[in-house]
Write a structure and sequence with these properties.
The protein is an alpha/beta fold. The protein is 28% helix and 22% strand. The protein is built from 21 helices and 32 strands. The strands form nine sheets. It has an eight-stranded mixed β-sheet with strand order 14-13-10-8-9-16-17-25, with helices on both faces. Strands 7-6-19-18-20-21-22 form a seven-stranded mixed β-sheet, with helices on both faces. The chain is globular and about 75 Å long. It binds adenosine-5'-monophosphate-propyl ester. The site of adenosine-5'-monophosphate-propyl ester (PRX) has 22 residues, from α13, β22, β26 and β27.
């Protein structure tokens, strides 16, 4: 594989992922098979034309028409309070109705959710649409009558990958309650911050779940979350705890009287209760999804009901090629946006069968995903480059041992190396599957760039052209457009709004404007969408064929195994250790995870470095955030490389960690430190 270094997308003195990304050359094309094309949902070559800017925004009516509306909208897009876009204004809709009730007539007895325990000897649960309907109604009744929740209230979920998670989300949606699911692997403290920010009175969790063959104590995290939230001045009134095995406690933690309730116990009072779906305005928030950004504080991306669901459903239909008869498995976690859009809302809105798998892909061995695929007849598979790299390393020949056939596969979340792409295509996909490399973000609700699987050839390592109705532009630092095919990296933006775009940052509209729209805004106060390109925060290049290659983040975000982490979040976790004076995090390339964080710390005067302290700092990151943020190494350094104005030069640290040339360091306030750190890194 030929590699070359990407040109820097950002010119400030902070290192960005894009700056250190090592990238590959343009690859040759692969064609989708005639068999795939013959059955594909989208073969209409006019689609992109129909979604041209001339037809904007009315073109998106086609997406919204995939849903069932109580009341049709009056205005497709309201830009009067730009850049706070309002889609399908005046429309009334319910997401739970669209994902459940409307399928009963035709698909009552069809599996909606296949739940697979990590323990292979446990039977698979096949939950039909009828059963989903019954369970969603009962949970909605409990939330309304037992918890007193009503439309617009927020509820934090800290649930693992179990069928009860989509059931709980859909129950919230049924009564207009805004759910905020926090990735189960996040710590209790991280959960607390999100509870406080969203002002959730209710926390819903599960006592435990399996990961890597071991039962994890999730209830403990709920206790920590409530304690920490209380310390921040927010009292959680009720904690609802699903039992992993109904009737049995999988956590040794005691129940807190008056606060903790066993979900499946309380549900008995709501047996067969029906709750009419609440007719929600299209622009009512459906959920919050917290993600990392440039500051330490995670931001709650607020997604709408009508616009989001229309976009999730349409992109699932056309780019995931989901038909109601397909068995679709997205191996992401519902705690991330991929799981929301492409495990829960998209596939269920289309009436497909969606797979929820509890555990790690390589448990108990690297053949597990392929056994699941064979057993369930999965024909659409969706995962991340990190998972593909791990499966390739641990079981390169496993897929061929199993009799499954994928017609379609997705990769998402990080750039995929062409070599890894080829293994995915040849070995996992058995050269039969059409592959889409989908680029998008928590904020965008659904895909932005991808090939249309039956129309465009695939190009390894390239996300492909923009989706219909998405009109990207790559700007340089000064706001000049980089011409198509220039092969020059810049900041990728989207010229126009689309229905899946998030509405705001919960509780922080100023930050929303500042972070996503201010940079390339053409006219302050304008109500014309043309003046407000969406700034994605990624570096990208467009080749002559119009395909985009995404180089990585240009802000202080590290993409670790497809998980988005803020360097500032990790740094502030390190600073909770009292001996630490300064902390700086930089990304380092990792064969499996893509990127991992390296943590540099300088200690307060008089404090001695020790292994114990290194371990304590590392543990602080795990406690404050999650094991996924654990630094590869904690370097205790005598001093940080700094500019004369005292700013830490992360670019230099990143070069040291990656054993690369640090460039000109003569302008540093303390250039001599660079050699000292290099020697330390080599030891
Ligand atoms: O840097 C891009 C990278 O993941 C970031 C978004 O992360 P998150 O909000 O957690 O959403 C992940 C699931 C969509 C982006 O800013 N990214 C996402 N997809 C790709 C990608 N990088 C390269 N290729 C992709 N297909």
């Amino acid at each position: 594989m030929a590699t070359k270094k990407a040109s820097p997308a950002a010119s400030n003195d902070e290192v960005s992922e894009a700056e250190i990304a090592v990238h590959w050359q343009e690859e040759g094309y692969y064609q989708p098979s005639p068999k795939f094309i013959a059955q594909a949902n989208l073969t209409d070559t006019d689609m992109h034309k129909r979604f041209s800017l001339d037809n904007f925004p009315e073109c998106f009516k086609e997406y919204a028409d995939l849903l069932t509306w109580y009341k049709y909208w009056e205005k497709t897009l309201d830009t009067s309070n730009a850049p706070f876009w309002r889609w399908f204004v005046g429309g009334k809709i319910n997401a739970s109705y669209n994902c459940v009730d409307r399928h009963l007539e035709k698909h009552r007895n069809k599996t909606a959710i296949h739940f697979i325990s990590e323990l292979e000897n446990e039977p698979i649960q096949h939950i039909t649409y009828q059963e989903l309907y019954v369970r969603v109604n009962e949970v909605a009744a409990l939330l309304r009558n037992f918890c007193g929740l009503k439309a617009g209230d927020r509820v934090t979920l800290h649930m693992p990958m179990v069928a009860e998670l989509p059931i709980t989300m859909l129950a919230c949606a049924r009564i207009g309650v805004i759910h905020s699911q926090v990735f189960s692997g996040f710590s209790g403290k991280a959960c607390a911050d999100r509870i406080v920010d969203s002002a959730s009175d209710v926390l819903i969790t599960m006592d435990g779940y399996y990961r890597g063959g071991a039962m994890q104590d999730q209830k403990e995290k709920a206790d920590i979350a409530c304690e920490d939230a209380a310390a921040q001045g927010h009292k959680v009134k009720k904690v609802l705890i699903w039992q992993r095995y109904p009737g049995k406690n999988s956590s040794p933690r005691p129940m807190v009287k008056g606060r903790d309730f066993i979900m499946n116990e309380v549900l008995k009072d709501y047996r067969l209760t029906r709750i009419d779906p609440v007719e929600m305005p299209a622009e009512a928030p459906l959920f919050l999804m917290y993600t990392s950004g440039t500051t330490g504080k995670p931001k709650g991306c607020q997604h709408s009901t009508g616009g989001y669901l229309a976009y999730a459903a349409a992109t699932s239909k056309y780019f995931q090629d989901i038909h109601p008869e397909d068995v679709y498995w997205c191996m992401a976690d519902i705690g991330w946006i991929t799981g929301h859009s492409y495990i829960v809302y998209g596939p269920l809105a289309l009436g497909a069968s969606t797979v929820v798998y509890e555990g790690v892909p390589t448990y108990p061995d690297a053949g597990r995903p392929w056994r699941i695929a064979e057993e369930l007849g999965v024909n659409i598979f969706h995962t991340s480059p990190t998972a593909i790299r791990a499966l390739r390393r641990t079981g390169p020949d496993e897929p061929q041992k199993y009799n499954y056939h994928f017609k379609h596969m997705t990769t998402v979340g990080e750039p995929i190396e062409p070599e890894v792409w080829r293994w995915y295509h040849e070995v996992v996909g058995k050269r039969e599957a059409a592959i889409v490399d989908t680029w998008w973000q928590t904020e965008t609700g659904g895909f932005l760039c991808s090939t249309v699987p039956a129309l465009h050839p695939m190009k390894p390592g390239s996300a492909g052209p923009a989706l219909p109705g998405i009109h990207p532009v790559i700007y340089d630092e000064d706001g000049n457009e980089i011409p198509r095919g220039a092969g020059k990296a810049g900041n990728i933006c989207i010229r126009n709004p689309w229905p899946g775009i998030f509405q705001t940052i919960w509780g922080d509209p100023d930050r929303f404007v500042r972070q996503y729209y201010e940079r390339y805004n053409k006219k302050k106060g304008s109500t014309d969408w043309r003046d407000w390109p969406y700034f994605a925060g990624d570096g990208a290049v467009q080749s002559e064929d119009g395909y985009y290659r995404i180089l990585g983040r240009i802000d202080d975000v590290i993409n670790v195994a497809g998980h988005r982490l803020g360097t500032k979040e990790i740094e502030s976790a390190a600073l909770t250790v009292t001996e630490v004076a300064e902390a700086a995090v930089v990304p380092v390339a990792d064969e499996i995870k893509g990127r991992v964080p390296d943590l540099y710390v300088a200690l307060k005067p008089g404090v001695q470095a020790s292994r114990e302290l290194q371990e304590r700092i590392s543990q602080a990151v795990v406690t404050e955030i999650s094991p996924i943020a654990r630094p590869r190494k904690v370097w205790i350094v005598p001093d940080m490389p700094k500019t004369r104005s005292g700013k830490i030069m992360r670019r230099v640290l990143a070069a040291i960690s990656s054993n690369q040339d640090a460039g000109d360091v003569s302008t540093l306030a303390n250039p001599e430190i660079v050699d000292e750190l290099r020697k330390m890194a080599k030891m």
